[in-house]
UniProtKB/TrEMBL annotation, chain A:
<protein>
    <submittedName>
        <fullName>Carbon monoxide dehydrogenase medium chain</fullName>
        <ecNumber>1.2.5.3</ecNumber>
    </submittedName>
</protein>
<dbReference type="InterPro" id="IPR016166">
    <property type="entry name" value="FAD-bd_PCMH"/>
</dbReference>
<dbReference type="InterPro" id="IPR002346">
    <property type="entry name" value="Mopterin_DH_FAD-bd"/>
</dbReference>
<dbReference type="InterPro" id="IPR005107">
    <property type="entry name" value="CO_DH_flav_C"/>
</dbReference>
<dbReference type="InterPro" id="IPR051312">
    <property type="entry name" value="Diverse_Substr_Oxidored"/>
</dbReference>
<dbReference type="InterPro" id="IPR036683">
    <property type="entry name" value="CO_DH_flav_C_dom_sf"/>
</dbReference>
<keyword id="KW-0560">Oxidoreductase</keyword>
TrEMBL record, chain B:
<keyword id="KW-0560">Oxidoreductase</keyword>
<dbReference type="Pfam" id="PF02738">
    <property type="entry name" value="MoCoBD_1"/>
</dbReference>
<keyword id="KW-0500">Molybdenum</keyword>
<dbReference type="InterPro" id="IPR008274">
    <property type="entry name" value="AldOxase/xan_DH_MoCoBD1"/>
</dbReference>
<protein>
    <submittedName>
        <fullName>Carbon monoxide dehydrogenase large chain</fullName>
        <ecNumber>1.2.5.3</ecNumber>
    </submittedName>
</protein>
<dbReference type="InterPro" id="IPR000674">
    <property type="entry name" value="Ald_Oxase/Xan_DH_a/b"/>
</dbReference>
<dbReference type="GO" id="GO:0008805">
    <property type="term" value="F:carbon-monoxide oxygenase activity"/>
</dbReference>
Automatic annotation (TrEMBL), chain C:
<keyword id="KW-0001">2Fe-2S</keyword>
<dbReference type="GO" id="GO:0008805">
    <property type="term" value="F:carbon-monoxide oxygenase activity"/>
</dbReference>
<keyword id="KW-0479">Metal-binding</keyword>
<dbReference type="InterPro" id="IPR001041">
    <property type="entry name" value="2Fe-2S_ferredoxin-type"/>
</dbReference>
<dbReference type="InterPro" id="IPR036884">
    <property type="entry name" value="2Fe-2S-bd_dom_sf"/>
</dbReference>
<dbReference type="Pfam" id="PF00111">
    <property type="entry name" value="Fer2"/>
</dbReference>
<keyword id="KW-0560">Oxidoreductase</keyword>
Length: 277, 794, 168
């Protein structure tokens, strides 16, 4: 309940935030704090300094740039969930976000915070993987746009390097409405994903991703390949959603074994895909 | 004279609520005293270990830390007491000390106490206390703990057996089973639960060196009992040197009945340091170090005839007590379990054998229902197993074995007091009707054809409420070592306002409201003129507190009786005022008058004024209207009813959806239906939670894996159904109001309704039993196993 | 100990300026520094919702926010919800429908419900239950909480409401 002591720095701009990070290399960034603060309260995280980026204007807001939806990293789940622009362009995104945590978590938690934290049981990593997003990362030497497929690198590990800040999430918008579905099996206590499967139909066919079961979110390439060139119908889906992952690659605990989670991946993938048919 | 509006029986909203909905209640952590220090505890990360060395020097040097103590420092006070020992039953009870000395017996066992100027500093310094442990092998399963070669936890308890207990007739049960047409055997596990009142436990201790008196604010369901135990047994000081105060208590469910180490170490530290000390558990500490509930391993056999008569029941239960013996731990898996094991059925031969066993886990004691949910789950699960075995409808099997209305008072032959009153079949029939039983069976058959798995589960229950009669519960052999009467004082002040002090300790039950309803009606005074006070040993007469659904049946009756005494005295004084004979007086609707002359009446306020001014009272009559009752009922009360759950199992994921929940309860006469329904709702929720979600899970090394609310699944609103309630009313003959009690009935009835439904849903797979909780993976695995076995058979 | 930071907040319409340790949780700031003990602590893992308050009109778990983060913000706690001696309709609903027993979860539950009704004035029962996923109650089994929120929703929409009646 009581965190270890730390020093607090509030950034007013992105450049100030980067500067603070330069001066406090051990510091953690604080946006919504809903991944970080719970870990600090259990003293699983004891950063000596926090840099509060929640008020940095460059990190806030949702806008459309051509065929791309740009979401500032410090935009809260609630802001995304209630955004008319998002509801019109990717209606399945608010639906997925509504499954995260609870309303208070969504009022404070931010998209960038979730993605940069890369909790293996978080929902959004699977969603951005199937949306084929790009992540804008700003460092002292400038900005780079990272493909989502190379963003999640391990448990709590991403492409964001020391001294860098995830600033924006870029989601390509197809013609019309993006078709995506997210199926989640929530942990009954924590409400994190025991298994979450996201699927989307893109210009290059089906994209599918898995969160919750492994040490980080991954594409379900086996499923994507099985459906490649196939018409999407109940039969093809049923046939494709078999033994998608090997239980040996998954995490397990006393409530949800790896074997059971592997089975859930098949079931949830099927159910998500059926929603798109 | 027209009747004034009666309050009893009306669904009036609670008088407790205005301050609580405005955030103006006073809970334990809201108490702040000048100069108050904050305590934090260094807790064992090991389930079983010797303490080799404790170095407090770094913690002591930390700025803001006032003191650090270990168990060795507190050897001048005794270990916690155990009621069971006082009961004269043979046991090997080992109770916890204020802090562990020499060894720890469960994860979370307290090892050192840090006292600091603020709570953050105290917590920081906990990290600085260095403890060297020598880990020992651990055991967490009660049955395994009794097996040869299991690690020994206490020298005093060979094979980790703290106590052995039995009831019923072994010879008769053995004979019934040996000669039966049908015998069904099962192993039933009633898993460990963590009570989880939303407010954790805590206390604030103050010591006045000038008078040698302590004041202890505490999260208590029974402050008088806590005062007695802490003074007479732990500190060895006169009882009068401690004042216990329970402010608003944020839920208890049994967990706040017991005498815990933290009450003792906080008092001890306050005396040593000369400053008030506060200790409030964090939730993870509450999970690791406060009591848990249930945790039985049971081998059971039920015997009967092919035409549905149950003829015998034989039960062997290993009850997990945890790493030490908690205050009334002995009484739960024995008196409140074994003696009601045959439930609502006439079973001619039954025998229950219980071993109370130490393991390397948190202590186990009463949790909502306390023994009765375990008993009810066992018999109701076995009635379904028996029904399935002989191919009979489970409702019909129940009907054929019910105790009949003419059998009351009913002696079940297990050493229980006679069941007071009951009529079980109407409750079952009403529940079946509400749920549309015949239609459901058709729907179920249709659904199965489409590969959907619906199930219906019946639970007909009886339970023990108003646990009290001291001559029974306190007798040698029952093991409680205490009476369980309840007290009430009623005073009518000279302004006519009525003040009631009760030994009950409401913490959500709405006792202030119901007691005021009773008093208003009985005295004929406005409800608003009645005040109910409780919670302070300085103000209230000695009472045993609130648990065992006893507030109304025992505490409420004490109030009722005091009111009758007030009325009698009022009549005597009014007779004097009216120059009449007391025996000619009538007291009705707040007025006393001579029979036949209601127009010349004296109001209670007038009489109270006369009694208080006292210049003209009849000879020998004391001033003031002030009456106290210590009510010790002749019997317990036995609420009953039938609950029915309907579930759908998702065979692909194993997830159980609770689609409907119907409950028909008979809690005797009802004082406030709104409150009774609230009690039933909450009770049902906790039983449903046991069936589907909750498990206080220790791994084999004794690590509590469900150590906080991230892991332990207390259900949210979305995980629970809408409850459909109805009642039958069979008044209790035990008390003048005919009430029984409603606090635990919902919990006692519900887990098996849900589990019977789950297993009914899974019957096409040949599944006969599943252990709780019916988690998705457990259900899925059962289906997988069944499919594999069938494939192998083909 | 890390250096203290000066913050300025408006709580229930009253402005406060305080020096706080950066690690002080908002819930401790409210309870211990300002003495507003209606906001409760029921867990240590951000699950139970007993600590919900409003920060700039949004419901947040005050156990998962540092006091320094709300510098310059306007807060409402349970103590500030009633206006001019009148209960907020959600408070009224909880009283009328027996939506509380021990009352410990109640302040957070009420604050979460107020946030819900601001965003969704006419929620279905399912939406109410979903919106309460961050608030645990151990006493009521939630049914009367749902009824309380439905009562408040109707009242806020200007529809007639009925008070305390048992449900059968």
């Amino acid at each position: 309940m009581y965190t270890a002591p730390f020093t607090y720095h509030r950034a007013q701009s992105l450049s100030e935030a980067l500067q603070m990070l330069q001066q406090n290399p051990e510091a953690k960034l604080l946006a919504g704090g809903h991944s970080l603060i719970p870990a600090m309260k259990l003293r699983l995280a004891t950063p000596p300094a926090l840099i509060d980026i929640s008020r940095v204007p460059e990190l806030r807001g949702i806008r459309r740039e051509g065929n791309t939806l740009v979401i500032g990293a410090a935009t809260t789940y609630y802001e995304i969930e209630s955004s008319e622009l998002v509801r019109q362009s990717i209606p399945a995104l608010p639906e997925a976000i509504e499954q995260i945590g609870d309303p208070m978590v969504r009022n404070k938690g931010t998209i960038g915070g979730s993605l940069a934290h890369a909790d293996p049981a978080a929902d959004l990593p699977a969603v951005v993987l199937v949306l084929d997003a790009k992540l804008k990362i700003q460092g002292p030497g400038g900005a780079r746009l990272v493909d989502v497929d190379s963003f999640f690198q391990g448990m709590f590990t991403t492409a964001v390097g020391p001294g860098e800040i995830l600033t924006e999430v870029h989601v390509p918008l197809p013609q019309g409405v993006a078709r995506m579905a997210y199926e989640k099996f929530p942990h009954p206590a924590s409400r994190y994903a025991v298994v979450g499967v996201a699927v989307a139909i893109g210009p290059n066919g089906v994209r599918a991703a898995l969160t919750g079961a492994g040490d980080h979110a991954v594409r379900l390439s086996k499923l994507e390949q099985a459906l490649s060139g196939q018409p999407l119908n109940a039969q093809s889906i049923e046939a494709a959603c078999q033994n998608l992952v090997d239980a040996g690659e998954l995490m397990g605990d006393h409530n949800f074994s790896a074997e059971y989670r592997a089975h859930l991946v098949d079931v949830l993938a099927k159910r998500a895909l059926l929603r798109l048919v | 004279m027209a009747d004034v509006t009666k309050m009893v029986g009306k669904a009036i909203k609670r008088r407790e609520d205005p301050k609580l909905i405005q955030g103006r209640g006073t809970f334990i952590d809201d108490i702040k005293l000048p100069g108050m220090l904050h305590a934090a505890v260094v807790r064992s990360p090991y389930a079983h270990a010797k303490i080799k060395r404790i170095d407090v020097s770094r913690a002591l040097a930390h700025p803001g830390v006032v003191a650090v103590f270990t168990g060795e420092d507190m050897m001048d006070i005794n270990p916690m007491p155990a009621a069971w020992q006082a009961g004269g039953v043979k046991s090997n009870a080992v109770t916890p000390r204020a802090l562990a000395v020499g060894k720890v017996t469960h994860v979370g066992d307290g090892v050192a106490l840090v006292v600091a100027e603020d709570r953050y500093t105290a917590r920081d310094a906990v990290e600085l206390v260095e403890v060297e442990y020598e880990p020992l092998p651990a055991v967490v399963d009660a049955r395994k703990a009794t097996e040869p070669g299991a690690p020994l936890i206490h020298e005093a308890a060979p094979n980790n057996i703290c106590m052995e207990w039995e009831c019923g007739s072994k010879e008769k049960a053995d004979a019934a089973i040996a000669s039966a047409e049908v015998v069904v055997k099962e192993e039933i596990i009633n898993q460990r639960l963590i009570p989880t009142p939303m407010e954790t436990r805590g206390c604030v201790a103050r010591y006045d060196a000038a008078t040698g008196e302590f004041t202890l604010w505490m999260t208590s369901q029974a402050p008088h009992v806590h005062r007695l135990l802490l003074t007479a047994f732990v500190f060895g000081i006169p009882e009068t040197k401690l004042r216990c105060i329970a402010p608003n208590v944020g839920g208890g469910f049994g967990q706040k009945i017991f005498c815990y180490a933290d009450y003792a170490f906080t008092m001890w530290a306050a005396r040593r340091l000369g400053r008030p000390v506060k200790y409030v558990e964090e939730r993870s500490e509450n999970y690791k170090a406060s009591t848990h509930g249930r945790d039985h391993v049971t081998e059971v056999e039920i015997a009967g005839t092919r035409d549905g008569k149950v003829t015998g029941l034989r039960v062997k239960t290993w009850a997990n007590l945890g790493g030490y013996f908690s205050t009334i731990a002995g009484g739960i898996p024995t008196t409140l379990y074994g003696r009601i094991i045959t439930g609502v059925y006439k079973i001619p031969a039954a025998h229950v054998k219980v071993w109370g066993v130490y393991t390397n886990t948190a202590m186990v004691d009463a949790y909502r229902g306390a023994g009765r949910p375990e008993a009810s789950y066992l018999i109701e699960r076995m009635m379904d197993r028996f029904a399935a075995e002989i191919g009979m409808d489970p409702a019909e099997v129940r009907r054929r074995n019910f105790i009949q209305p003419q059998d009351f008072p009913y002696d079940n032959g297990l050493g229980m007091l006679p069941y007071d009153s009951g009529n079980y079949e109407p409750a079952l029939n009403k529940a079946l009707q509400m749920v549309g039983y015949e239609n459901f069976r058709k729907e179920q058959a249709e659904a199965r054809k489409q590969g959907r798995y619906l199930g219906l589960g019946i639970s007909s229950y009886v339970e023990i409420c108003g646990v009290a009669p001291s001559a029974w519960i306190g007798a040698v052999g029952q093991g409680w070592g205490a009476g369980l009467f309840e007290s009430a004082n009623v005073r009518v002040h000279l302004t006519g306002k009525v003040v009631v002090t009760t030994g009950s300790l409401p913490h959500g039950q709405g006792v202030e409201t119901t007691f005021a309803q009773i008093v208003a009606d009985e005295l004929g005074v406005p409800y608003e003129d009645v005040t109910i006070e409780w919670g302070d040993t300085l103000a209230a007469p000695f009472g045993y507190g609130t648990y065992g659904s006893r507030s109304l049946a025992v505490g409420g009756t004490a109030v009722h009786k005091s009111v009758q005494k007030i009325k009698e005295k009022a009549k005597i004084i009014a007779a004097h005022m009216l120059e009449a004979a007391p025996e000619d007086m009538v007291f009705e609707n707040g007025k006393a008058y001579v029979k036949g002359s209601p127009d010349k009446a004296k109001t209670l306020a007038e009489i109270a004024l006369q009694a208080s001014l006292a210049y003209s009272l009849p000879p020998g009559v004391e001033p003031f209207l002030d009456e106290t009752t210590y009510y010790d009922p002749p019997n317990c009360t036995f609420p009953f009813g039938t609950h029915i759950a309907i579930v759908e199992v998702d065979a692909e994921t194993g997830k159980v959806e609770l689609r409907r929940y119907v409950a028909v309860d008979d809690v005797g006469n009802i004082i406030n239906p709104l409150i009774v329904e609230g009690q039933l709702h909450g009770g049902i929720a906790q039983g449903v939670a046991q069936a589907l979600y909750e498990h206080g899970y220790y791994d084999e090394d004794g690590e509590l894996r469900s150590s906080n609310l991230l892991e332990y699944a207390v259900p949210t609103a979305a995980m629970l159904p809408r409850y459909e309630l109805d009642h039958t009313v069979t008044p209790s003959p035990v008390n003048p109001m005919g009430v029984k009690g409603a606090g635990e009935a919902g919990t006692i009835a519900s887990a098996q309704a849900v589990m019977n439904a789950v297993i009914d849903a899974l019957s096409p797979f040949g599944i006969k039993h599943l252990q709780m909780p019916a988690t998705p993976e457990r259900v899925w695995r059962a289906i997988q196993n069944s499919r594999q076995m069938r494939q192998a058979a083909d | 100990m890390a250096e203290k930071v000066r913050i300025s907040v408006t709580v229930n319409g009253v402005q406060h300026t305080s020096e706080v340790e950066p690690r002080q949780l908002l819930v401790h700031y409210l309870r211990e520094t300002l003495g507003l003990t209606g906001t409760h602590i029921g867990c240590d893992t951000s699950q139970c919702g007993a600590c919900v308050v409003h920060v700039d009109g949004q419901a947040v778990k005050s156990c998962t926010v540092f006091a320094v983060q709300v510098d310059g913000s306007s807060l409402t706690t349970i103590e500030g919800l009633a206006k001019d001696g009148h209960y907020h309709p959600v408070q009224e609903g909880f009283w009328e429908k027996h939506g509380l027993q021990c009352g410990f979860c109640t302040p957070g539950m009420i604050m979460a419900a107020v946030d819900l009704l601001k965003k969704n004035p006419n929620p279905s029962e399912g939406e109410i239950r979903h919106a309460l996923e961050g608030n645990l109650c151990r006493c009521t089994g939630y049914q009367n909480i749902v009824l309380a929120i439905q009562y408040a929703a109707a009242k806020l929409r200007g529809e007639p409401v009925t008070g305390a009646v048992a449900d059968d």
